[in-house]
Amino acid sequence: MMKLYQEMNAREKIIHDHGGTQLTDDVNHPVRRYFRCWLDGSYNGEQHYRRNCDFVRRNHNHHSTMRQFVVSEFCQYVAREYDISTEYAETCVSESMSSSRFLLLTNQLVDDALDLVDFEEE
């Protein structure tokens, strides 16, 4: 018998919310949309947005650095959403999907981060 969502612990909710293919198949999935809000400062203010933009401008040509950045930011976002530590969020996220699906997701999150900055202004 499946638990009701409100009866699930944080790990179970993350697996429920991030599992399967919907997170990577739908650019407008709520988790993806809220993560973009995280990056744009809607959660932590303008200073966070400016730091994110500065980081992206400096590192947009370094894919591995960008991947590390979005994984870190995504885990911080998940930790905040589910009221858990960042380290536990990272564990739960990695348990919620296959490594190939996680790689696909991080590449998509890099694209989301790149959308923060208009590179034509440089």
Describe it.
- The protein is mainly α and 122 residues long.
- It has one domain (27-121).
- It has helices at 10-18, 22-25, 30-39, 46-59, 63-82, 86-96, 99-114.
- Helix 1 packs across helix 6 and helix 5 (63-82) packs across helix 6.
- The longest helix has 20 residues, at 63-82.
Please give the radius of gyration in angstroms: 15 Å
Residue share in β-strands: under 5%
User: What kind of sheet is the major sheet?
Assistant: none
Mean pLDDT value = 94
Anisotropy-based shape: globular
- Report the span from N to C terminus: 56 Å
> How many DSSP-defined strands?
0
Number of domains: 1
Which residues sit in consecutive blocks of at least 5 with pLDDT less than 50?
none
Distinct helical segment count: 7
Give, in order, the helices and strands: HHHHHHH
- Which structural class matches the secondary elements? mainly alpha
Considering the chains and any ligands shown, give keywords for the structure:
122 residues; mainly alpha; globular
Secondary structure layout:
Elements: H1 10-18, H2 22-25, H3 30-39, H4 46-59, H5 63-82, H6 86-96, H7 99-114
